[in-house]
Design goal:
This protein is of the alpha+beta class. The protein has one domain. Helices cover 51% and strands 16% of the residues. The chain has four helices and four strands. Strands 1-2-3-4 form a four-stranded antiparallel sheet, covered by helices on one side. Helix 1 runs antiparallel to helix 2. The longest helix has 21 residues. The radius of gyration is 15 Å and the shape is globular. It starts with a strand and ends in a 7-residue tail after the last helix. The relative contact order is 0.19.
Amino acid sequence: MKIITSTIKTLPGTVGLYDPIPMDRIYLIEELLFDRNKKDVPPAKRAELHAEFFKAVFSCVEEWKLEGLTGAVTFDDLRAGAQLKRKVLGELEGWITTEVMALYYGDTSDPNA
């Protein structure tokens, strides 16, 4: 598990990411990235794919230890439960996505992989 420290002032604490990321989640992220980036995707479908991408990214979190967010937290929990203000949720989405994608791309640093 890779432990990352929150960069969000209103959510101090840590998050544990699966390291390495499980293959089923890697395949899902790759599929969603491919589908989301197609040029002929209608706006409504693009929004749906965007939400599915965040769900896949958040599924790479093994452990939440952020002030106010503990236990099993899913993207749907955060969206539906209104636990966070929209701005903070956006910051959390950006931070977790950046960290997960760094692990994701780190897995492909070996040209023979």
